[in-house]
Structures are given as C-alpha cells and as structure tokens.
Specification:
Strand content: 5-15%
Shape: globular
Number of strands: 7
Radius of gyration: 19 Å
Number of helices: 11
Strand order of the largest sheet: 2-1-3-4-5
CATH superfamily: SGNH hydrolase
Largest sheet: 5 strands, parallel
CATH topology: Rossmann fold
CATH class: Alpha Beta
Number of domains: 1
C-alpha cells in the first residue's frame, strides 16, 4: 500500500511539473509593462525594450546595408505606439551581426542588463547553427536566468528563414533550434515569438518565401513586418 501511494505521488508531481512548463500567457505576461505604458505624464516613465541577437534584429538586409527603421524592433515600436499614445518607449539594440548566443551571453551583463531593460528579446538561432544545440541551449538558459533574477521580462524568438534550408524538411537544423527555443520558453515560462512557425505556415499555404527575403539569410522589410506584428501581439 505504501509503495502504491509513493507511485501516485510521483505521478502527480510529474503531472504538476509538466502542466507548469508552458509558454507565458500572451494576455497576462506583460501586464505590468502594459500598465506602465498606459500612464500619462507626470506619472509615466521610460520603458526600455532591448533586442539582443545577431544581424536580423540589427536590421541587416543585403550587401551590408543596415535598414534600422525597416527592422522588426522598430517596426514593432511603431505598432506598439499606435496603442500606447502616452508612453515613452526606448527601442535599444544590443545585437551584433554575425554573433552567436555564446558570445552574446558573455556580454549579457555589461551590454544588456546595464540598459535597464523592462523587456529583453533574444534572437540568435540562425547563427547558433555554428555552435550546435547543446551549447546554444546553455547560452540561452544563462541569459534567461540572468534576466529573470532581476525580474526582467523575456521574449524568445525562433529563427527567421534561411532560403538554403528547406523549411518544410522534417527535423531540419532550423526546426531543431526552433523546437529547442520553444522548450526553453515553456521551461522558464517566458514569452515566445515563433517566427519560424509563422514562415513555415506561409510556405505550407503555398507562399513563395523569397518575397520576404533580402538575401538567403536575411528577411526584407516585408518579412520584418510579419515578425513585428507577432511581437506587437504581446502588447495588446
């Protein structure tokens, strides 16, 4: 009888853990930030949105050209400001073209947390193919944990497309990184912008993804608009 009760307890504990491991709720996760953004002067304050990652959030299109105002961080700002007309919002880029998450993690304290962010967005998966899943997971986890220790909200982004990778191929390398990022979002109960799934569904519906690409691994303004719209949903 005692053994049976132990088994039941273990099963219930496992179920409870599984149930708690889920991505944050879109409606409530940023509630405190949204409340701050509704305040009028003089009760309001500056809200800092920090985007940490590689060339895509930095705004690189093609031939080294950087289209800052055509990148998803600033396109998202425009959408967010349409709703929060009294808010003072800083969009801050700590992203570096060509960087992967291990390097991003080494400068997380000095380059990101010093910006006093209210929300941190992390987008490294395209370049994390160079270091592999295990090393990438460790770096992402360290950044997430460092942010959460300071009660900073975190939004994880799965990769945007690379035209050299068949987005519909089962278990392709970007799919694997996207899956890992979803798992991290669920494990840490933070926000998720699933760019990869968004573009995958477009492809499944018959869309030609080349219309969203500036070059093989960089989306153009149309592609950035799609990601920005997904980010803005967290502020609705």
């Amino acid at each position: 009888m005692k053994r049976s009760w132990i088994i039941v307890l273990l099963v219930c504990t496992a179920c409870s853990f599984t149930g708690s491991a889920q991505v944050a709720d879109t409606a409530t996760y940023l509630s405190s930030i949204k409340l701050e953004m509704q305040k009028k002067w003089p009760a309001n304050r500056t809200i800092n949105l920090v985007y940490h990652g590689h060339s895509v959030p930095s705004g690189y299109y093609t031939r080294g050209e950087v289209h800052t105002l055509g990148s998803y961080p600033f396109l998202a700002l425009k959408l967010i400001k349409e709703k929060y007309k009294y808010a003072v919002i800083n969009t801050i880029l700590t992203s570096i073209g060509g960087e992967q998450s291990e390097k991003g993690q080494t400068r997380f304290d000095t380059a990101v947390l010093t910006m006093r962010p209210d929300v941190i967005f992390i987008d490294y998966a395209l370049n994390d193919r160079n270091i592999g899943l295990e090393r990438a997971r460790s770096a992402w986890a360290k950044m997430i944990e460092a942010a959460l220790k300071k009660n900073i909200k975190v939004v994880l982004l799965t990769p945007t497309p690379d035209s050299r990778v068949d987005i519909l191929a089962p278990d392709n390398i970007l799919e694997q990184h996207a899956r890992q990022i979803r798992e991290l979002a669920a494990t840490y109960h933070v926000a998720l912008v699933d760019s990869y799934l968004l573009f995958k569904r477009l492809k499944e519906s018959g869309e030609d993804l080349e219309k969203y690409m500036a070059q093989n691994n960089h989306i153009n303004e149309l592609g950035h608009q799609l990601v920005a719209a997904e980010i803005a949903k967290w502020f609705n």
